[in-house]
## 1
Amino acid sequence: MTIGPLDRGVLVVGTGLLGTSVGLALRRAGIDVQLRDHDAASLAEAVDLGAGRPHEARRPAGLAVVAVPPVVTAATVVDVLSHGFAEYATDVASVKVLPATQVRALTAEPGRYVGGHPMAGREVSGPGSALVDLFQGRPWVLCPDEGTDPHAVTRALAVARLAGAIPVTMPAADHDAAVALVSHAPHLLAALVAGRLAAAPAHEVRLAGPGVADVTRVAAGDPAMWTEILTANAGAVADVLVRLRSDLDRALAALGSAAGRDELTELLRAGVDGRGRLPGKHGAPPTDYATVSVVVDDRPGGQLAALFADAGRAGVNVEDVRIEHSPGQPVGTVELDVRPGADTALTAALRAAGWSVRD
Amino acid sequence: MTIGPLDRGVLVVGTGLLGTSVGLALRRAGIDVQLRDHDAASLAEAVDLGAGRPHEARRPAGLAVVAVPPVVTAATVVDVLSHGFAEYATDVASVKVLPATQVRALTAEPGRYVGGHPMAGREVSGPGSALVDLFQGRPWVLCPDEGTDPHAVTRALAVARLAGAIPVTMPAADHDAAVALVSHAPHLLAALVAGRLAAAPAHEVRLAGPGVADVTRVAAGDPAMWTEILTANAGAVADVLVRLRSDLDRALAALGSAAGRDELTELLRAGVDGRGRLPGKHGAPPTDYATVSVVVDDRPGGQLAALFADAGRAGVNVEDVRIEHSPGQPVGTVELDVRPGADTALTAALRAAGWSVRD
């Protein structure tokens, strides 16, 4: 075992639900975790829960995990890096284009940041709601781009893995389109359906059963937080909503016409199909991986995003990455760890895309 | 104890999920249950499960519970009554105006039928999915109108009560508007959200989590069955969808404008409010009731719907009803059983509405 990617410890900034849960998972894995929060009571509660020790700023942590509201994420990332609190930084904000754009505007070293988004949460908030296994089996998206330093990716991947999550890499714009589809637009629609109940007479609402309770469960989420999220991803969310409005118009036309039954059935059948595509429960990630080694030119870090993109197109998740590169040498090696069995497909796909993969 | 309302037994027509569950609950209560189904295998399975014995047609059952698809409900009700298989009939269809209208068109004795809708179901179907406690604590709507025979109401109420349900009475049109709001429109919206997933690339769908799984859970329902339901309640469903489309337009406008944040927050807050109005888990119904006795003129049956309507406006559920009336006498008494404590409010409300309530 060489030096681990998190041997210099992790600084968690923001000890709410997500930050405290990250701290708990990393402490369980024996990682040194320091905690910062502008709210002293929240910080003290997270420390008491065993999520880490208060930040001391003696020397930089290996990675900062910034877990603050989306609107202040980029400023906090840049602040943490510029103060030397950490060598690299990632975040947990639920949108990824906006913080990446803001980080690039605020610092000359945006490569020290890699955007992250663990796809987990609860309808309750605060350190007291944190769970050591909040991320277990859930996708944890990382969005490296061509400028991202590979160490940032390696360390963020290690956090995701130690938290029991399934690392998923994709470009920030793809992430934002995906979460608009699978999270933000559904949330808004659920809120609109629930909002209709707010305006209805009591004798109608009393007939509500488990079905509409399921449909509207997420609508209980904090309106202020969701306004931030939806505003930060407005374009991608609007794209989905425009399509949904068109589907709604089709449904209305079908309901109003004697010949509309087939159209209605078709819309309902698409719903069954879409529902059937939802991922089931993920198991725990494997502890052993297969490794695919790719020979790259003298900028191995700069090629990481392209490698991840090609792996993603092949349907393969990169679970870990290591860069072997001697300074002054013209070539290096990027080692990609993937689930056992996925290495064959990845090797074939990368070779087809023109990469030089070692046997 | 006088003669029970179900002492002449119950005939369940249609041994699917709902019919078999009704049979199981009535058998548990010691009621004689006969079963009919055009599908011999389904009938045999329901008999094997203990939901009742095969129908013998020797003498009329006291009540038929017709549990067949909505589109054939009215014809089956009239068929059962005209063959003398039962003295009275109710149904379990999820719309109520359509079968009532059809029954009136098909028979000269529509008063022998009272529309019913137990607000319970599962995403699976068939007698093998039946549950003895499927209706436990769920609303069971009955829709008597001015022509409904009180015996039909009394016997249908007894079925609901023995199944552990909460009886709720309201006009058929009110029922259909209510289920459009709390069930049919939410189902369609859930299907549209799920349908968007059907059209999406795999790397987007793989990020789906528990939130969108909740929102789209009901969308797994059978498209053919839901086409029937939505078509049978098209007007009321369209009314809700038009309002939802207007809300969606507001959300889209808000997302597209820098000044739209407050509007977005307002829509989300209405969602929180609506979600908060959903009824919690109902407890088991009480076994003791308080009785309110109303003196009525010589058509006590014809005044039942008006009494139920006034009780509903007072927020009181009528759990049971008995008619005391000697033939040839100009007046009679309607005894309404309600939850202990609700009798005071009901007495006051009925007196305010002009009814003669006994002390």
## 2
Amino acid sequence: MSLERIRALGFSERDARVLWEHFDDAERRGKASHGHARITWLESLEGLEPAARPERVESAPGFERWHGRGALGYLTLAAICDAQLAAPPVEARLVVAERCFPTGHLGHWVRRLADGRLLAMLTATSPARLAPPGLAEPKLAGTNPLAIGIPSSDGRPLVADVSPARATWGDVIAGLAGEADVVPFGGEQAHKAFALAVGLQALVDALVREPGHAAVLLVAQPSADPVPALRQAAGGARLPGDS
Amino acid sequence: MSLERIRALGFSERDARVLWEHFDDAERRGKASHGHARITWLESLEGLEPAARPERVESAPGFERWHGRGALGYLTLAAICDAQLAAPPVEARLVVAERCFPTGHLGHWVRRLADGRLLAMLTATSPARLAPPGLAEPKLAGTNPLAIGIPSSDGRPLVADVSPARATWGDVIAGLAGEADVVPFGGEQAHKAFALAVGLQALVDALVREPGHAAVLLVAQPSADPVPALRQAAGGARLPGDS
């Protein structure tokens, strides 16, 4: 079974469970591109360091900087979420996670924080695969998603997790799309999705000290509880992140 | 001329110039929906309080809360930008601007910050005009844009300013679109733009203490200077925000 296959790669029991929960959550939420297909992908990776541990290298009021130190991005984000929940910001905190890849479906992490009553916004970079709309080159930005998680007193956080790409690399890995589908979404307005991808790329790249794929997380204390009213206004319509 | 018309509404010379610079910048950048057409719109507003002044009501390391106190959102954002440039964050700061409307084209404000060597991400809410894709109701989110500004050592910041709407209310005011065009962009993937709009709506609504249209700004010190290399990689391709 999946958990066994992850353990077999040499991860600790705890890390194997973190990875398995992420893949399983993706699968259950219909995000197969970040689901079990990724275990096969992990098995194919060279240079996997299952014993690597991320490190918090800087901590100040309203700011933290982490470094993956060779750990999988999933495990770095899990450690960062644990740290935020253990010591939440007084008001808000920006967390820069250097060398943090792969990060999976970002909705998973902001949901963990929202379940812990923290508001979160998260983005992460990945290999450059998006060229300006209509062009095959130059590829200037990753399929950098943006995820937003908002706690709700009704126990059902709002989780928006948007990729600027029509299909992600995960979709390609999962056999759900071809490489030619990894383009900015939006058809005649694809310049908007491209601008979002490039903007997020530059945001992350400007915040790191060491070049490489990275993640940027904003966590904050909510001052209000808008989700139940939003869900009521939606009537039967599905809100982002609802199952 | 435009500046005279703004002065005639009762604004101080300083405020009139802030407003004029915003409208003029919009016009020059081809964002007519936030340009001179807005002066006529201002003239039509009831309850304009040209003497109102925004107030910083909370200040802590990494966090500020402002309140518009009846001032136009443009002037509140201008005051916030001035304050960030005068006293930049050590690392990062989240700024919540309550009762901050209208805010105009957000690229204008993040560009000001990027010109001052600060990285910025800004969103703002507006009347709910976006319903789930394919539906006319319920309208659950404003056409809440997301703007990202990244300083560049070549003097040309990267400015991405993306609205999740195919056409904005400003386009309607400017006569460039009809109300039926104010829908999430993206065609068959419009659920992504809708999720972004709803996510930003809930993010802002969860951070304010007093319900109402508001803005949320993240400002941070850059640790790297990725834009010149990105521009070089782009070759002749236009980067977001380039004229």
## 3
Amino acid sequence: MSPRAEQEVLFANDVFYRAFAERDFRAMDGVWARESAIACVHPGWGALAGRHAVMESWASLLANPRSPTPACRDPRAFVYPDAAFVICFEELEGNFLLATNVFVREKGAWRMVHHQSGPTADRPAPEAVRDDRGPLH
Amino acid sequence: MSPRAEQEVLFANDVFYRAFAERDFRAMDGVWARESAIACVHPGWGALAGRHAVMESWASLLANPRSPTPACRDPRAFVYPDAAFVICFEELEGNFLLATNVFVREKGAWRMVHHQSGPTADRPAPEAVRDDRGPLH
């Protein structure tokens, strides 16, 4: 994989978690693919398929001040010619989930087509926990 | 997406679960990509990255007669030009997990590059539970 593509994918992943943390639905809407089929598995939920169902779930989550907003830790990108996925920890009040985020290229930009997050017994490396600033800073 | 590509991806997903159920390491080895970076998140585990770590985990799981072998239920394929993912339930002794399986094309064949499975409160549609024969029969 090219270092540039890897950086672009990690940036797209970062934009997703910033939109999540800032409860910014417009930014979240921009993260997700518009021309490709999408799906989403929130922790413990069933699978949501299609843009309407997926974005409705985000609108509901981001509008709820009690819904948790995870911080991304230790993201690792796996990049193929026109698709990629990122594995990362999601830190929620000292607890950790592990997420898979899948991206495809749409008009040259990496857009999310799938997110699944679930429990893990693993923990990020200590330096990844200490670095509060995301992978690109 | 073309119906043929969707069928090919669902077949590759089916081969994965058959290898799992039959504890067939050679078939499992053939399911996973050889030329592309791979990763795997078994339920509750941390992420494994790289062919050596991923295949070692499968060798260990398939060699252990006490490790569970899930049946695939209600698989749904999301296919892009050179990549795809399948979301499906995994049934284990009446319990259900939800899995994401990511595939890329290698020399024309769909090969797995990532698997993540975790708990879900959802259940497959009744007809998917009743159909024991997989999606292609």
